[in-house]
Amino acid sequence: MIQPADKKLNWIVGITGASGSVYGVRLIEVLLQKGFNVHVVVSNAGWRVLHEELGWNITRREQALSEKFSDTAGSLIYHPVADIGATIASGSFQVEGMVIAPCSMGTLSGVAHGSSDNLMTRAADVMLKEGRPLVLVPRETPLHAIHLENMLKLARLGVKIIPAMPAFYFHPQRIEDLIDFQVGKLLDSLRIDHELFTRWQGGAAAAVKLQPDL
Asked: Would the annotation count 104 as a binding residue?
C-alpha cells in the first residue's frame, strides 16, 4: 500500500460531464488530505455538472477549486482541459496513475480509440503508453453494445473499469457513506491505504433448510 508519507507523488483526477461529479470531488479531497500532489482536469461539460449537481459557482474555475480544497496537506494543480501542453500531457512527467471519475461514454470512447484531442484523453493515453495505472468510473445506464465493447477493449489493455455501483453490506446510513465506498474502491485499485468504509469480515455460516411448498 502507498502510505500518506509519500507526499511528493503525483496523481491525476479527471472529471467529465457524466452525472456523479461528487465522486471525483471526494477523491480529490481524500488524496489532498493524504498529502499527495493532485493534478485536476475538468471537461467543459464536467464544469456544468459541478454547477448543476453540487451548486458550484464556475464563473472563475480555478478559484472555485481553490475555495473547495483549501487548507489541505497536499497540493492541487489545475490544468485547463484545452492545455494540451501541460506537464501531464507528457510521459516524461512522473505520475503514479490517473482516475477519471465520473467518466462519460464520450471520454471513454476517446480513450479506447486513442483520440487525444484534449488534455483529458491525452493524459489517459499517456497512462496507457507508459504502462501506468488508469482507472475509469463509467456512470451511465442502460449501456448499449458500443459502451460495453469500449469497456472490454480498455479492460484488455489493463485499464481498471470501476462503475459507480454502491454496496449495502456495510449498512450505509447516509449518501456520503455510499460515496465513500466508491472512492474507497478507487483507492484500493491504486493501492492507497484508507478507512473510508468497513470491509467485509465474513458472515456466520447458517444452514438453511428449504421447506417444500404445501
From this structure: yes
Q: Which of 112, 159, 166, 167 is nearest to 136 (CA)?
A: 159
User: Does 105 show up as a binding residue in the annotation?
Assistant: yes
Is 85 marked as a binding-site residue?
Answer: no
- pLDDT tens, 41-79? 999 999 999 999 999 999 999 999 999 998 888 999 999
H or E segment to which residue 15 belongs: strand 10-15
| Nearest-10 crossing angle of helices 21-33, 175-189 | 60
| Residue 131 Rama label (left phi>0; alpha psi -120 to 50; beta) | left
CA–CA dist 14, 99 (Å, integer)? 6
Bridge partners of residue 98, in order along the sequence: 12, 134
CA 158 to chain centre: 16
Domains and CATH numbers, the chain: 10-189 (3.40.50.1950)
Note if the pTM is more than 0.85. Answer: yes
Q: Has 169 been labeled as part of a binding site?
A: yes
Cα gap 154→118, rounded to integer Å: 19
Cβ 189 vs Cβ 162: under 8 Å: yes
